[in-house]
Every structure is written in structure tokens, then in C-alpha cells.
């Protein structure tokens, strides 16, 4: 162990100092690599080699922002099927923190919508029937009442659907009122706990204390918040960072969005959801690209894969008005 600690002391000599997120990521990789090194015998990485690999990866994070994490599912190149060979993949925390950084570089303080206005958005949905491979593309438009005091109009796969005004004391998630959005904390951990307290109330526990249903609920609620096309400055990157704090998020490399762009998915491993529902990011810039979901027909006989992304949005004064 003394040799390993000496290696950790030496590897960063002359390297660019790590910032807070990079340090946390490096620590995660270090523990992950050590754990897997303990499991390997014979042909696997030694603990010292695992530490060397993680140290180099941490330096790469500080210099380039690119991160890797060691996996051991036997899918690494050059290994026999089923062999416990190292595999490299994007770490979820790297993708999400990268998305937050990209968003902060792009965003500007938006014009705050009034409660008597509507949030307009247009999204493209590419839906594939899983059995036949038949693909249909829909253009859905939505007009959401900001103050939820007026009827809202949305389209679902080309069909119009009306939402009645919310009654007194009732609201919607994500909030549309600017005053409510502004109240949401932008500290990642506090944001996770704040949105849960508005839902199933986790009784003041820390994120580490959340059980699996609450973890998945936090992932889902944050994903719904990110579907809102207009948010106060700083809230969207905070939501990405909050997702990185939710235990159980993972990456799914090599996925495509509704525009045909290849990206990396961010999903939650609970309830089997990681195979069907996730957010998609550019694998280099970490720009958010869109969503993937699944639906089942009313008969239960057909299952569809849905890919979607927003192509236009704005603030308007009345229903059916476009920016």
C-alpha cells in the first residue's frame, strides 16, 4: 500500500492542478480501478498498473476534459469473449459535468415570461415500431400556460390534447411559473432534495441515503425539468450537475438521436429503465441532443422506440401563436 500511495503522490508532478469536479472524478476512478484490480487474477491489471492508468486518466481530465473509466465486462477489444479485460467508456459524471460546462458557455439570461403568456415549443419525434422496423416522424407543437391559469394545448404524436387550468394550490412539474423556477436551488445536491421534497418527500435525507425508488424519481424529475425549453440562467447546468449526483446513473455509448447524430446516453439503472429511456449528449462537446423513450400500444401488442429533440421554442401571448 505504501508503494501505491507513493505513486499517487508522484503522478501529478508538473501536471495542471485538478479542479473540484476533476478531483472527485479521479477519486472515483481510483477506487473503481483498485476494486477491479483486487478481483483480477493472472492476466488482469495489477493494483499498481490500475493506479497508473487512473492517474494518467485523471491528468487527461484536467488537460482535455476527456475521461475514461475501467470496466470489466469482457467487451474490451483484443480479449476473448467473456474474458475480464479492461473496457473504456465515458463516465456519466464526466458527460453531465461537461454538459453543464457547455451550457454555461452558451446560455444568456432569458427574458422572463409573464404568467399570462405561453411557452411555445416544437419538437420532432422519430418513432420506430420494434417488430417491423417501420418508422414514422411527427412534428408536435405545444403551448403551455406559464401561470397554469389558462388552458394549455399540446400535441402527442400529431394528436391535439388539452390541459385544463390548474386549480388553486395545484401546479405542474416542471413548474412553468418563472417565480417558482427562480426559487429552485442551483446547488446540485440541494436541487435533488428540493425536487424530491415537492414529490414524495424523502424526509430530509442526504442523496446517499436515498433508496432506489427515490433515486429513480430524482432522475426522472430532473429529466422532466430539462424538457422545459426556457429556464432561469444557471438552472439547466445545475440540473445536469444534479443528475451527476444521483446514484445509479450510467452511460450508454453509441446511441443515435432523432436527427441521426451519434451520442452517448445517460440513463438510470433502477427498474430496468436504462435499456429504454435516456438523455442523449454529444460524445465530444457534451451538448445535449435529445431524449430516447419507449411506448407500448393500447393493445399491448406493439412497442415503439421514440427519439425526440426540440427544434424551436419561444414566448407567445396566445394559443396557436408562433414566435
From TrEMBL:
This is CU044_5270 family protein. It comes from Streptomyces sindenensis.
